[in-house]
Amino acid sequence: MKKEEMLSRAIGGIDDRLIEDADLPERRKRPLRSFAKWSAAAAAFVLILTLALTVPGLRKEKKPIPSTESSGKDDMPSPTDPPPQPIFFESFESAQTFLLSADLSSYSEKEQEAYEKMIRVFREDGFLYRASCRGMSIPDGKVFLFPEARYEDIGIGCWFQGGDDWYLVIVYHVREGKERAVVEDWTKEYEGTYEIGVNADRRSVNVLFRYWTQGSSTYFFGYLDDRHYFLIKGTAPADRIAEVIRGLSLEKLRVKSSFPWIPVLIGAGVLAAAGVAAVLLYKKKKN
Fold first, then answer.
1. Which of 11-20, 177-186, 233-242 has the highest mean pLDDT?
2. Cα–Cα distance between 37 and 19 in angstroms, integer?
3. What is the pLDDT confidence band of residue 202, given thresholds at 50, 70 and 90?
4. pLDDT (tens digit per residue) in 20-40
5. Are 49 and 30 in contact (CB under 8 A)?
6. pLDDT of 58-87, one tens digit each?
7. What Rg do the C-alpha atoms of the chain give, in angstroms?
């Protein structure tokens, strides 16, 4: 098959009659024919590459490995029926990529069901919260997504390190159909409260935190809004953890997939140029 025919069929077919005219001198036909041919091929390449790189589900991401690490809650299900595990990532951006284009094919059926629900909740929200904290760093691999479990809601969190101290910060989604009073009942034996302004999406949100001590750890609990709540854990005293929270910032990272309009428009422009060249070539043939 001729090279011209292959290129024509790849983009839907440029009529060979537009580029084959024995009556037109070869030196006049060749530039326009070549321009139309290569412009059309370039347009097809741009469109295919754009879809392959941007549309969720077309690109393959390396599957994160579920971790057996615990968030620190003691009331977990029986080991005989382990729930799907949290998934750990190198960064919040890696978690964002996973939520946009996750490949769950190698997980068990039970894990797939839990992770699909987790992904759906984040996509319905349209974002995930990326946490940062003044004077603190997040070691690689210490960002994680929580699927829903018997005693745990869907959430995203990370570990912060400041010197020798470690702090766990998780933003949970309020479970569908779960009354706020039910969640707050979990913290009914709190020891005290702190009202702290948290920088959430470039605005300060006053959060009333309840705190309590369990073993060597201190826990802070508070609502960010009607759909999200915090759990913050540290081994430092409550007043020290309160200072850490004051340096906490949350930024929204988009996880709702959107169509890649700009690359597609560029490809469409190249395709239009090929069409114009074909029309000009046709007119020259008529003349």
1. 233-242
2. 9
3. confident
4. 433 434 444 455 455 555 555
5. no
6. 444 444 444 434 444 444 444 455 788 999
7. 28
* Paired sense of beta strands 192-200 and 248-254, if any: parallel
| Best CA proximity match to 273, nearest among 35, 15, 49 | 35
Spatial neighbors of 194 by CB under 8 A, at least 6 apart, are: 208, 209, 211, 220, 238, 242, 245
Q: What is the pLDDT of residue 43?
A: 57
What letter represents residue 152's amino acid?
Answer: E
Structure-model confidence comparison of residues 240 and 55, the more confident one: 240
Q: Report how far residue 64's alpha carbon sits from residue 127's, in angstroms, rounded to the nearest whole number.
A: 20
Average pLDDT, whole number, for the chain?
75
C-alpha distances out from residue 19 to 234, 268, 287, Å? 73, 21, 14
Q: Write down the pTM of the prediction.
A: 0.63
Give the number of other CB atoms < 10 A from CB of residue 75: 8
Task: Kindly report the three-state secondary structure assignment for every residue of the chain.
Answer: CCHHHHHHHHCCCCCHHHCCCCCCCHHHHHHHHHHHHHHHHHHHHHHHHHHHHHCCCCCCCCCCCECCCCCCCCCCCCCCCCCCCCEEECCHHHHHHHHHCCCCCCCCHHHHHHHHHHHHHHHHHCEEEEEEECCCECCCCCEEEECCECCECCEEEEEEEECCEEEEEEEEECCCCCCHHHHHHCCCCCCEEEEEEEEECCEEEEEEEEEEEECCEEEEEEECCCCEEEEEEECCCHHHHHHHHHCEEEEEEECCCCCCHHHHHHHHHHHHHHHHHHHHHHHHHHC
